[in-house]
Amino acid sequence: MRxxxxxxxxxxxxxxxxxxxxxxxxxAVLTQPDRPAGRGQKLTASPVAARAMALGLPVHKFxxxxxxxxxxxxxxxxxxxxVVAYGLxxxxxxxxxxxHGCLNIHASLLPRWRGAAPIAxxxxxxxxxxxxxxxxxEAGLDTGPMLLIEKIAIDATTTAASLHDRLSAIGxxxxxxxxxxxxAGNLPALAQPAEGITYAKKLSKEEARIDWTQPAEVIARRxxxxxxxxxxxxxxxxxxxxxxxxxxNARALAVSSAAVEPGTVLEVDSHGLHLATVDGVLVITxxxxxxxxALPASLVCRDWKLAGQRFS
Length: 312
Description:
alpha/beta, 8 helices, 28% strand, seven-stranded mixed beta sheet, six-stranded antiparallel beta sheet
């Protein structure tokens, strides 16, 4: 099909690759403008822009889809537009340009987790499953009818990072299937249920600080949900000299930590750093010290004198 692809982050790259490999005529790739990145804050192209250029595809970095931008797209006469985490709101006038409208690859089982951060919020909430929904776009926030759905399980080892990669691959496979079915005239749409609607608000750095008043299981889920960003953190040491320690992975143990104050180090073993919580034990399996890399906690803590210290 003659299509326009709109996407920005790494999550969208497998879908672009899959559509290209399937032989679709990708008329243009829309992505966000270059942004400062890295320690030097050098202007850097988005992952989608970089991949599109490597594939020799024309790239547009519109600041907004105003009448001038829409005129450029309309002149291409696309049959369909595929949208994956593009980052710009598509007005109805843009949605109406392609013959078959616009399809969105959304990383949740709609209507659960509409919005900006469905992967992390599913992990944080302790959902047993999530998946990918191919949706016909309309003006509302992820409200359009569903075309294809695929589910996968979430367990106590799942991080947002690992889930991201799995869902990204599924999205690439499903969108190719969806376009094939559209071409064959065999892709019925299903309206989203009115029940079970939740919204996945954007993650913030402020909420990534560990709240030691929460149960071990809640803290562990939040640590896994905030990997790879914004990364859960807490402090160790006295006020004014405290170090910010980032926790990348964790699991909860259903054992008592007696009357020990939450955040206190209980032990370090081959499984990781054991910390007391209000209802049990939190095992940090991967962490990062200031200026260092994220490493297995058992390795980082091996020569670190932590006995009896408390994270705050």
